[in-house]
Every structure is written in C-alpha cells, then in structure tokens.
TrEMBL record:
GO BP field: regulation of DNA-templated transcription
GO molecular function: DNA binding
Protein name as it appears in the record: Alginate biosynthesis transcriptional activator
Extent of the signal sequence: none
Cross-referenced InterPro entries: Arc_DNA-bd_dom, Arc_rbn_hlx_hlx, Ribbon_hlx_hlx
Domain Arc-like DNA binding: 9-47
Length: 90
C-alpha cells in the first residue's frame, strides 16, 4: 500500500478471541504478507463470495450452501466440542 493510500485508509479496531492473533500471524507469514494484508485479503475474499442483497425473508446462508457452512464450522471446532455435538445429533 502506498503512503497516500495508507493515510486515507479507514481504520477499525478488532478484538480477536484468544489464539486468533497467533493464527493470523502464522497465516500471514505463510502467505508472505503483513497481518493487516492477510486480514484484508481474507475479508475481501469472503465479501466477494457473500451475496450482499439477500431478501430479509430468507436465511442468512444462501440456499444450497447450508451443508457446506455447517461442515466448515464443524471442522473448526476443537475435537471435544465436535464429539459433544455428534453425541447430541446421534
């Protein structure tokens, strides 16, 4: 980012849950980016894929993507929480 872009950039403070800062730092190193660039890249990617004009009568997850979203959330859970969830579902 150029100096004049940096001074015009909008700033926003974000509070991360425990451990997330370290995970972002690791991902940024892997991608050869700064932490800020890593966060912005990931946000931009998620916003491109997300439909911004969902009607209010529909759910927040686009139809047909529910299973993938659930699977993604499930995979990010710690092992003990995955087991607890499976116990509730089965």
């Amino acid at each position: 980012m150029k100096q004049d872009e940096t001074t015009r950039a909008e700033k926003f403070v974000v509070r991360f849950p425990p451990g997330m800062r370290d995970r972002i730092a690791q991902a940024a190193r892997h991608s050869h980016r700064s932490m800020n660039a890593e966060i912005v890249a990931r946000l931009q990617r998620s916003m491109v894929e997300w439909p911004g004009d969902l009607p209010r009568s529909e759910g927040c997850v686009p139809q047909g993507l529910e299973e993938g979203l659930l699977l993604d959330c499930f995979r990010r859970l710690p092992a003990e929480k995955r087991q607890a969830l499976l116990a509730l579902l089965i």
